Amino acid sequence: MYFFIFHIIDCYKNPNGKDIILNNEKLDSILNLSLETEEAVREKSNILSNGFNPENGIWEVIVKYHGDISRMASEVESLELLLNGYAIMTLSEAQLARIIMEDEIEYVEKPKSFAFDVYQAKLRSCILPVTTGETGLTGEDVLIAVLDSGINYLLPDFQNENGSRILYLWDQTLQADSERGFLPPDGFAKGVEFTKADIDRAIAASQEETSGRRIVNYSAAREIVPSTDASGHGTAVTGIAAGSPAALRYQGIAPQSGLLIVKLGGNRLVAGREEGIGVTDNSGTEVEPSTQNFPLTTDLMRGISYVLRKAQELRRPVAVNMSIGDSYGSHDGTSLLERFIDAACETGRNVICIGSGNEAVAGGHTSLRLIREERIELSIAEAEQSINVQIWKNYADSITLTLEAPGGARYPVVLERTGKQTWIIGDTRVLIYVSPPTPHSVNEEIFFDFIPLERYVDSGIWTFVLTPVGENREDTHFFLPDAVARNAQTRFLRPNPHLTMTIPGFSSRAITVGAYDMVIDAYADFSGRDREIDERESAFFASNVKPDIVAPGVGITAPASGGGYRSFTGTSFATPIVTGSAALLLEWGIVRGNDNFLYGEKVKAYLRRGARPLSDERIYPNAKTGYGALCVNESIP
Predict the structure, then answer these.
(1) Which one-letter DSSP state was computed for residue 2?
(2) How are beta strands 58-65 and 105-109 bridged, if at all?
(3) What pTM value is reported for the model?
(4) 171, 203, 558, 577: which could join 551 in a potential S-S bond, CB 3.0 to 4.6 Å?
């Protein structure tokens, strides 16, 4: 038995002149219905258009068969033989009409989508009731700011009848060039700022016709606005929050909002490390992964300052999206970046939304309460170019610490002396820095950096041996870099999924967003968590529990930087659903005059109160899903 997936073309004529295949019992009901439905109608359906490419009229289908069908490869666009009598074919409807006449073909089924259109995320998040009808909320006169990897400003998702919806685009990665008029924003020293007028001129220059066919001239556009989105991360995030394509199923949460875009210094992601992210520029050209860099916290802080200033200049409320994070820090909200964000939340009429990260099952965190000698084992994979380990402990707790190398040799760390220590172990240089508490934190950090003497760090099991000196009152925590920055096999052997939110997700005044899976209506296991709390603590510390809320974050369909739409998974793509929803609340309250003070933590309070429970959680708030799943209709008073 075998299955196929096919792409299909035309056959019998329907009243609109389109060839179709009528009610063949070898076809599943949804495929039959899809073939008999006009394309314009089918595009509005959540299911009928799945598997169809409108650009070439080709379908993808699953085929159940028996015998040998390899001869059919020349009769269809493509044939992929799978296991046990299943195959995938891509074919036209005319080719499908011929194939289903073959005796070996038992059944043909239309693929069902495991990805979710933004429309479905709206449905699950109770957004549709507040956005439909003549008085529906759209984000009009509200700003959405996205600080990320940039944007493909040429996509129609970010345009309307007045041209680009992007009011300002600051690309921090570009070099200023005064002769070309490429200058940074006022008050900043790096990057280049582009206005809506610049972007509109670039869009106009990009539009060409060749042999009667409309094409996009990327080179002409880049002469005017040379800003791209290599990873596609920022384009997808912006599309989810605020995209306005013609197809309603792909429309973002607040499609009439104005956009402020900051392309942070460097690019958001390394190739292929977060599901759905490619490595292409706006034209679809592949970009070498080694050219991608991570932005610094300083870039992020500049970006926050910039968009809040712009919002004040434009006299509009702003919802800020930051689908970005890092594992470095004490994970208690005391980092300077988080303190800066807390202060920013009090500047003007804004809401800042931050993703909780995707580290819960990545093996990058472990912890323990020391009662006796304990061993923390770290597996460092082969070909790891470098790796670091942070140990955070309450300064009042005393311990001894020894590092045991893969060969068994032991190296005691001198904790009584702050500052740097250095060892050479095999082919690895180990740098240790013992740091006392800071004016902003009671915690002590012990930092290990494993650096190869030549190419790679020594692989194997490295063990941290800890012994308490007296009574230890708090847990000691170990953190690795984010999963995107290390080999998947480099991980703690006994990881703890709690306290895995990335920084700046612990910012107390921002809205921290986790992810859930719409298929099972349950928490997405990768979504970053706060520290583990019991039912009593949940009630006592309710106002401080993170994340604040969860939104759909598995298989979300969003615009790809190179054009078209793709499926994306991660808290990065749950966050803009909440950011767009926050923009709707800003519109309802401030723009429409229902509540002139509906911004900041008041928006957070309303979203928390309206949240609904998920199927797998009993106690709310909790460390995985906060107050529950986003439900905008119940969040508006």
Answers:
(1) B
(2) antiparallel
(3) 0.82
(4) 577
